[in-house]
Amino acid sequence: MSQHFAVRMDVALPPDMDPAERAALLAREKAYSQQWQRSGHWPHIWRCVGEYANLSVFAVESNAQLHEILWGLPLFPYMTMTITPLAAHPSDIALDAPAP
């Protein structure tokens, strides 16, 4: 059974970072995040308008798996994160949907 987490990631790259290094880092970040998105463990990612930040939802098997995913992010050393465990809400209409 999956555990769900909302994770806000704020990025602060050094302003004097070499442009080629920055481009390579961002390419690695994109490839890594898309791998986890394709696996189903990172089902949602949204940009926070006007900020170098995103809000993502993770569906993982354990706290340890979430830790592994987040620490593996190439941008991790430049991020500040806020992690919120999620639980089903009793007013969610999806909970009332009949089983297929």
Provide tags for this entry.
4 strands; 100 residues; Alpha-Beta Plaits; alpha+beta; elongated; four-stranded antiparallel sheet
Question: If you had to describe this structure to a student in words, what would you say it looks like?
Answer:
The chain is an alpha+beta fold and 100 residues long. The chain has a single domain (3-96), classed as Dimeric alpha+beta barrel (Alpha-Beta Plaits). Helices cover 31% and strands 29% of the residues. It is built from two helices and four strands, in the order βαββαβ. It has helices spanning 19-39, 63-72, and strands at residues 3-11, 44-47, 53-60, 79-86. The chain has a four-stranded antiparallel sheet. Strand 2 and strand 3 (53-60) form a beta hairpin. It is elongated, with a radius of gyration of 16 Å. The relative contact order is 0.28.
Short description:
Its EC number is 5.3.3.4. With 100 residues, the chain is an alpha+beta fold.
**CATH level-four homologous superfamily name:** Dimeric alpha+beta barrel
Q: Which strand-content bin applies to the residues?
A: 25-35%
Overall morphology: elongated
- What CATH architecture do you see? 2-Layer Sandwich
Number of strands: 4
Secondary-structure element order, N to C = EHEEHE
- Helix content range of the residues, please? 25-40%
Which whole number gives the mean pLDDT? 95
Enzyme class: isomerase
EC number: 5.3.3.4
Pfam families: MIase
GO molecular function: muconolactone delta-isomerase activity
